[in-house]
Amino acid sequence: MKITHHALLLSAGLSLAGISQAAETITIATVNNNDMIRMQRLSKVFEEQHPDITLNWVVLEENVLRQRLTTDIATQGGQFDVLTVGTYETPLWGAKGWLEPMKDLPASYDLEDIIPSVRQGLSVKDTLYALPFYGESTVTYYRTDLFKQAGLSMPEHPTWTQLGEFAAKLHHPDQGQYGMCLRGKAGWGENMALLTTMANAFGARWFDEQWRPELTSPEWTAAANFYVNTLKNYGPPGVSSNGFNETLALFNSGKCAVWVDASVAGSFTTDKEQSRVVDSVGFAAAPVEVTDKGSSWLYAWSLAIPATSKHKNAAKTFTTWATSKEYIQLVAQKDGITNVPPGTRTSTYSDAYLKAAPFARVTLEMMKHADPTHPSAKPVPYVGIQYVTIPEFQAIGTSVGKLFSAALTGQTSVEQALAAAQSTTEREMKRAGYPKQ
């Protein structure tokens, strides 16, 4: 009865504002990152503009979100109308027909304004399956005041070895100051995102051209030893529990001399309400080592509509609004230009933004530098920098992430972790039928 009533009202051109029973509710699953929490707050503006659409939010921690969404979409559960997904899931799920193609966008959306590498990462055969909310690469954050006091200077393009040397000189745990903070929390999108880019910089690759895992290679061994030893010697306590949000909180509270992580953190480290170190944050390129191939990741948290959604039009209206130039202007107006979602639109990088946001230039440089089709100095059969774009990687990356987390806590040695990672990955790939002809 409601559907008929709703349809009659629409055909009569009557306003739905006062008729709550006709309002559509769309359920949005998103991650508990600051930019998404801001989107939730500012979406009151959307609801005022669209009184016929009500938003229901499900905000989850990163690992939990990924697990919930993967289960829901694979089983066609249909719990959500809008999914917050990344450049890993989007092409895989789009190819399976699990996501709605993002076609017939309004001209005002200006699709050509989306940074080409981001658009490409969310497409299958030139069909877009998600709209990017913010894009990111990797940046080195450091404390300019501590560097100055110690007579050190950060190169524009540092190496991991140099960062390790700086960390050793700036580590004063008795004063609550740690040389280097990095992600240690297990997860393919948590510690493995960071560690895979580090391994790439050391010249490693996940698989050779025949899809054979290479996790015990000299390059992986060198990267993993650097990662574990640096964090054990110069990292904060309890590092195996720290993901992106926890490490950001440590840096903002003044406890980290050097931190390598997502470029999206730039606006948070320079926000007086969140950060105690706003006046002494420096920004440099992502560290390289023997190569710069795959040394900085490319990722876009994006909004997609599952094929199972019963409210596709309303969901599309919302996703278009939240990823539009209009939304970026709204954030600039309400929260200041430095807080706009970065890394998705060329128009964001105006002179005013570059001038106001000290991290903007290096973010753009790293976004342009990242090339998911050439993630390693050696040839590879896969696409993806901090992950491998195959369905099996989510399980592989998370189980390998647990092994490295155990190496950080001393439960296992680096060599044992690498050997176990190699055999786990070999087993998973064999079970999945690789190499595929």
Automatic annotation (TrEMBL):
Keywords: Signal. Residues 1-22 form the signal peptide. It comes from Pseudomonas graminis. Belongs to the bacterial solute-binding protein 1 family. This is Sugar ABC transporter substrate-binding protein. Transmembrane segments: none annotated. It holds the Pfam family SBP_bac_1. Its main location: periplasm. It is found in: Periplasm. GO terms for cellular component: periplasmic space. PANTHER family: ARABINOSE-BINDING PROTEIN-RELATED, DIACETYLCHITOBIOSE BINDING PROTEIN DASA.
